[in-house]
Amino acid sequence: MTVSSAPSTAPFDLVLAGGTVFDAATGASRVADIAVAGDRVARIATGLAGEGRQVIDCTGQYVLPGLVEAHTHIFADVSKVGAPPDEAHLHRGVVAAADAGTVGASTFAAFDKYVVRSARMRLVSFLNVSVLGLIDFRFGELLHPETLVAEDALAVAAAHPEVVRGFKIRLSEDVVGSQWRPLLKRSLALAAEAGLPLMIHIGETPEPLPVILDMLRPGDVVAHCYTGKPYGILADGKVLPEVYAARERGVLFESAHGRSNLSFDVARPAIAEGFLPDVITSDTSARNWRGPVFDLVTSMAKLRALGMTMEQIVPRVTLAPARLLGLTAEGYGTLVEGGPAHVTVLEDTAETILPDAAGNEISATRLEPSLVLLAGQQVPTVPWRGSPAA
Ligand SMILES: [Zn+2]
Hints:
Layout: E1 3-5, E2 12-22, E3 29-37, E4 40-45, E5 52-57, E6 62-65, E7 67-72, H1 85-88, E8 94-104, H2 108-116, E9 122-128, H3 150-159, E10 164-172, H4 173-176, H5 180-194, E11 198-204, H6 209-213, E12 221-223, E13 234-235, E14 238-239, H7 241-249, E15 252-253, H8 264-273, H9 296-305, H10 310-316, H11 319-324, E16 343-355, E17 361-374, E18 377-379
Parallel strand pairs: 2-5, 2-6, 7-8, 8-9, 9-10, 10-11, 11-12, 12-15
Antiparallel strand pairs: 1-5, 2-3, 3-4, 6-16, 13-14, 16-17, 17-18
Helix pairs in contact: 3-5
The protein binds zinc ion (ZN).
């Protein structure tokens, strides 16, 4: 990445020159320059390279709105699954992220004070319906069903609308025991009362998926759509008709890789059939950020190796998650003149063998963040946490 300087009379602070700039709504791309003034995108056009006091050559690189991650775990030092947000995400190209149920009503105040307000990046929460949140994965947070205290969850959501953008229930047998149905019903009721979506993870309760999908409302989110666990989206190698019907009704599906959920054997036929996630997420946590998940850009590279195009991927890591998290009004998820200069520049790197959650491997051209702008400011990037030789 070549950096050069122009006369100090140049009108823009910074120009990202010659990159392949993506439209977050359509995924369409064109070669263009992006001029930044202060914390804003001033212009997107060609021929701006002479007008920046600093010019960064982005030729051959992908220029995207700052990435938005809709499913991660970031309550570091409190939860066993919590990773530090800026280190795990911002420095790897993600400018806004949602914690997915690590935090419950009883731990929210600490999360807000020590994580949300101390991070540089924008953070929101799918609040766990259990007041306990996901503190320690060895002890399911809903095994004592009375820990679902609707009034507490609703009170936190009402007091912190800038952070709580939905609720989360983990439908795992080791979390909900045999009580998945009444707990899901109560969770849906409280989400409806708050007017917010419910995120549900699947594949770990002993009921076929359509039974669960039938209960969901438009806007609710199915996490881990490519899970290899029983009762996923496939039957005989085909995506279930009930899955398409749920999507038709407005139920969303996100890919949440996680330590134990992305299966290449599920994702490959589903993508070939045209069943793409509505939102691409990594489910990065302290248990997987050194592998097999690593980060969102590695999840993007895996899905690309499985058949998705950049045109399909980009909207699903920018505008779609920004909409889901209610962050479009703040300018996240798009790159437009006058909008905030949150920009992630990615480059293709060497072919790397990458694993799924079951240890199956695929050879993929990885994506690396070569430049990250947060409100016009360059933030440091850190190298990929896997071994390039692995
Ligand atoms: Zn998760």
